[in-house]
């Protein structure tokens, strides 16, 4: 007989282990595979509304004050996000990443993965779109 108590929901796991493994080996084909088949951790300026699945929050990007270049920072694990970035993170699907890059790829000059380590990597938005479409 059930006890009638509901278990608390399992917390979201804000990581993509295959992406972390691919970054460790700096294998772009493995990075592409991990991005096509798993979530990406994205820093957010504003988290999404918990009761609105259409609201994924407002993504934080870095604008270089000298050049004006815009970088998108993505993480394989929320624990790799530097504390100096906004505290909120989102866990986004491959389809979301593809749509975001398509919508903002003209203004984003580079995409950094795990910029503070342990195994940073960078790619162009066009390279990531091609990887996601493969």
Assembly category:
single chain
Question: What profile does the largest beta sheet have?
Answer: 4 strands, mixed
Shape: globular
Task: Give the termini distance in whole angstroms.
Answer: 50 Å
Order of helices and strands: HHEEEEEHEEH
- Proportion of helical residues: 25-40%
Strand content: 15-25%
Instruction: List how many beta strands DSSP finds.
Output: 7
- Segments where pLDDT lies below 50 for 5+ residues? none
**CATH architecture descriptor:** 3-Layer(aba) Sandwich
Rg, please?
16 Å
Overall tally of domains = 1
CATH class: Alpha Beta
CATH superfamily: Uncharacterised protein PF11572, DUF3234
Count helical runs.
4
CATH topology: the name is Trna Endonuclease, Chain: A, domain 1
Adjacency order of strands in the biggest sheet:
3-4-6-7
- Class computed from helices, strands and strand pairing: alpha+beta
Mean pLDDT reading: 89
Protein name: Dehydrogenase
Organism: Microbacterium elymi
Structure, explained:
- There is one protein chain.
- The protein is of the alpha+beta class and 134 residues long.
- It has a single domain, classed as 3-Layer(aba) Sandwich (Trna Endonuclease, Chain: A, domain 1).
- It has helices spanning 17-25, 28-37, 94-104, 125-133; strands spanning 40-46, 58-59, 61-63, 70-74, 88-92, 108-113, 121-123.
- Strands 3-4-6-7 form a 4-stranded mixed beta sheet. Strands 2-1-5 form a 3-stranded antiparallel beta sheet.
- Strand 6 and strand 7 (121-123) form a beta hairpin.
- It is globular.
- The termini are far apart.
- The relative contact order is 0.21.
- The mean pLDDT is 89.
- This is Dehydrogenase.
């Amino acid at each position: 007989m059930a006890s009638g108590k509901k278990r608390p929901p399992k917390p979201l796991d804000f990581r993509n282990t295959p992406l972390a493994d691919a970054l460790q080996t700096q294998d772009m084909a493995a990075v592409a595979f991990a991005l096509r088949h798993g979530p990406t951790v994205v820093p957010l300026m504003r988290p999404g509304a918990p009761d609105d699945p259409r609201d994924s929050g407002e993504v934080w990007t870095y604008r270089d004050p000298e050049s004006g270049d815009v970088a998108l920072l993505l993480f394989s694990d929320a624990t790799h996000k530097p504390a100096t970035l906004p505290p909120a993170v989102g866990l986004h699907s491959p389809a979301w990443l593809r749509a975001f890059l398509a919508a903002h790829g003209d203004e984003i000059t580079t995409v950094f993965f795990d910029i503070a380590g342990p195994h940073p990597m960078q790619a162009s938005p066009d390279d990531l779109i091609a990887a996601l479409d493969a």
